[in-house]
Amino acid sequence: MAQVNPLTRELLVKLVYYGPGLGGKTTSLQHVHQSSPAETRGQLVSLATPVDRTLYFDFLPLRAPAAAGYIVRDYHVRLQLFTVPGQVYFNATRKLVLTGVDGIVFVADSQRERHDANLESLENLVDNLEEQGRALDEIPWVLQLNKRDLPTAMAVEELERSLNVYGRPAIETIATSGEGVMEALDTLVRLTLEDLEARGTFGEEGRVSAPPEFESEGRSLESQIGAASEAIWRASVAKSVDADMASEFESEAPTTPSTPVVPPSEAPRRARTTIETFPPTELVGGAPSWAPLFDTDDQALVRSIERAMADGSLAEAITRTEQLVDGLLSRVSTALGAATDPVLSLPLLGVGGARWLTYRRVVRRARSGGPLDQRDALEALAMAIELRLAGRFA
């Protein structure tokens, strides 16, 4: 979700380009990057396979131009633009990148032979959002109908009947030339900020100002988000996904991608310890307690989690653990200087995407009243312990 910093008067908004492989997501982001003044844009960081497919994700930080009067209340708007991989075998990465998204550009490939891939990707987007307790019809998004210059492009009306079931804005684009790409981004930013305003992100006062004008050459973007965001991305590329995701890629992918080496000077410090390094030293209800591992302010909460587990109140234990994890992740992210979505700092802490998603599934079951067992509660508490240990050595 969007983050409001009342001290710096900044609003950080996360936008994701979603769609089938080779549909034009990365090309669209490249055009946004190229259209921004070199002295003020953030660095576009991409990782592609030998066949030019996005392997993990692309990342581009931008700041909406204050010179254009684009300020929400008194807040400058910072944008973080991501793409997701199109390949099915990196769905876990798609889910992680979607976490906390504020708006989505769905990039559809207009070629008739790729229409099944469009439908599959749209269904996948709906499913991945539902796993995070969200619905596509409740999130600002636009439909970018790409590759309109190709001879096999389907009619716009036909594409909209199949894909635009929610009646969202549809923009025709040719990403290779940039036609329509900035219009799609401008439309999404306007819808997203209107949505944030409607949901009370800024309280009772004020209103959303006019939409940004990214494509105006006479108006420059302000300074890029900064080195912290780039460092987070580089670390996530180096770590990226758990071993199970890598094995899945090796077994299904036609080619084996190479992972860029992060220089020692840029590589973040990672936790070099395990849970066994700090054995519990207290007893709660006759059982060992992990409370001494945590700061004094958190110890009472940890003990209440352990008591709820001992009493069989698993949903209560997991809900309290979520509160603990959110606090830990926020503090560790701040300590690392990660001026972005705290979830995206997980790779800095050595926590892989699959590990985090397992924890989130447990939390969702607890919230929805689904079946739970002791293993679920322990999985959740293990995430809190892992984050605490990582925070000691980050």
Fold and architecture overview:
- The structure is a single chain.
- With 394 residues, the protein is an alpha/beta fold.
- It has two domains: 3-225, Rossmann fold (3-Layer(aba) Sandwich); 275-393.
- 40% of the residues lie in helices and 13% in strands.
- The chain is built from eleven helices and ten strands.
- The protein has helices at 25-35, 91-98, 115-131, 156-163, 181-198, 227-239, 243-252, 296-310, 314-335, 353-368, 374-393, and strands spanning 3-5, 10-18, 59-63, 71-72, 75-83, 103-109, 141-146, 170-172, 282-284, 287-289.
- The strands form two sheets. Strands 1, 2, 3, 4, 5, 6, 7 and 8 form an eight-stranded mixed beta sheet that branches. The chain has a two-stranded antiparallel sheet with strand order 9-10.
- Strand 6, helix 3 and strand 7 form a beta-alpha-beta unit.
- The longest helix has 22 residues, at 314-335.
Care to give the gist of this entry?
With 394 residues, this protein is of the alpha/beta class. It is 40% helix and 13% strand. The chain contains 11 helices and 10 strands.
**Number of domain units:** 2
Determine the CATH topology of the largest domain: Rossmann fold
The succession of helices and strands, N to C, reads: EEHEEEHEHEHEHHHEEHHHH
Helix-residue proportion: 40-55%
Between the first and last Cα atoms, what is the distance in angstroms? 25 Å
The appropriate CATH architecture of the largest domain is: 3-Layer(aba) Sandwich
Derived from helix and strand composition plus strand pairing, the structural class reads alpha/beta
Note the overall shape: globular
Number of helices: 11
- Kindly report the name of the CATH homologous superfamily of the largest domain: P-loop containing nucleotide triphosphate hydrolases
Number of E-state strands: 10
Which blocks of ≥5 consecutive residues have pLDDT under 50? Answer: 204-284
Kindly report the average pLDDT value.
74
* Approximate strand percentage: 5-15%
Q: What can be said about the biggest beta sheet? A: 8 strands, mixed
Supply the CATH class of the largest domain: Alpha Beta
Radius of gyration: 22 Å
